[in-house]
Amino acid sequence: MEKAQSEELRYKKTLQYGIYVFPVLLLLVGLFSASPATVWKGLRSIIASPSVLLHDYLYVGGLSATLVNAGLCGIICCVLLALLRVELNGPFVAAVYTVIGFAFFGKNIFNIWPIFIGIALFAKVQGVPTRNYALVGLFGTTLAPLVSAIAFGSHLSGGIAVALGAALGVLAGFVLPPLASHMLRFHDGYNIYNTGFTGGIVGSFLTAWLRSFDFTVAPTSRLSDQYDVFLKVLLLGFFVFLMLAGYVIDRLGARVIAEKMRLIHASSGRLISDFMRIGDVPSSIFNMGFMGLISSFFVIALNGRFNGPVIGGILTIVGFAAFGKHVKNCVPVLLGVYLASLLKVWDGGSTPVIIAGLFGTTLAPIAGQFGALAGVLAGFCHLSIVMNVGVLHGGVNLYNNGFAGGFVASFLVPIINSLKKEDKA
């Protein structure tokens, strides 16, 4: 018993230090890949961009500044969690990696802060510790583009625009916690990106309000494929490192890793599925690296390019590989999106379709609960929905697939459950 507790404590300390590895790596690579003047110029361009979907920071600010922005956003999250004394687990690993991923196309070191402030204010009003809402706060940065769209993409000028953008970000952060817990009932946990669905509702409400006052809020598309090879090498190398790290951390060897992975694969992934409790820290880290490779090969197989949104999709899968996603429940959804692209009007190798597949794994619990065919069906339906809901929130909700996934799950799951009951009868 004492040995098991000692091993668990070692795993927790390893995770606390290990979660910093990736953002620090990105920061250092970014700083050493260009001159300070180039990095600063790129960061200024990133911060001053409207940041709505799909605003690829590699296009806006270049490689070095984007890596620095992603690294700093990840470090900010880690430091905040440490200051709030949050015990790290699968959900928080998923949240940090999601922030890092979206720091390639929508989140930056300026626009995430109003969301955090709004969350802190809500906790203050409720009279509870801010750490109680830390997870919603990290995921709630899905609405960070709302800040930038008004501050830097509206017809207002100067300080007024920045102040209004920041105020709307604080408002969005303030209303997210009560809504997030309520919206979970809508899809019953079968849409892993619950905050994405909530963000879609909040974003649609606020965007409609802004449009009624003659503010233009609309999705855009600025994509770069200039750094494709470099980013493939960097990320694939890191994913292999994660798999090796998971093996090395577990002193008990490959057989125990395999046993823990079987436990992870047996989970449906339905909210809330913390793989660091279902398995353990080493097996979760191994699964993160493995899912990083699977998602990267999905992109490569479709002849896709590693740009900001695609990297965001890959890193989100990697993060959620500690919190609900594994190969058995993700691959059917990926296959469903690809099959849909063959029959529908969209090019299967285009960035919108590829990220629909990557982020569409928000529906992985459907495959995990009801089988591979249900997962394929979910992916097939998801592509149509996600291509049409972005106009509602104008691109200010970065987790557009989470928004779409909520509708798909709420539509399919009751039907599947009903059919299963009829089969039993």
Provide a compact summary of the structure:
The chain has 425 residues and is an all-alpha fold.
Average predicted local confidence, pLDDT = 92
Class inferred from helices and paired strands: mainly alpha
Helical residue percent band: over 70%
H/E element sequence: HHHHHHHHHHHHHHHHHHHHH
Any low-confidence stretches, pLDDT <50, length ≥5? none
**Gyration radius over CA:** 20 Å
Q: What does this 3D model show about the protein?
A:
The model has no long low-confidence stretch (mean pLDDT 92). α9 (144-153) packs antiparallel against α10 (158-187) and α20 runs antiparallel to α21. The chain folds into two domains: 2-211, no CATH class; 228-424, no CATH class. The longest helix is centred in the middle third of the chain and has 30 residues, at 158-187. 73% of the residues lie in helices and 0% in strands. By secondary structure, the chain is mainly α.
Break the fold down into its secondary structure elements and pairings:
Elements: H1 2-18, H2 21-32, H3 36-47, H4 57-61, H5 63-83, H6 90-102, H7 113-126, H8 134-139, H9 144-153, H10 158-187, H11 194-211, H12 228-249, H13 254-266, H14 275-278, H15 281-301, H16 308-320, H17 327-343, H18 351-359, H19 364-370, H20 372-393, H21 400-424
Helix pairs in contact: 2-5, 3-5, 5-6, 6-16, 7-10, 9-10, 10-11, 11-21, 12-15, 13-15, 15-16, 16-18, 17-18, 17-19, 17-20, 18-20, 19-20, 20-21
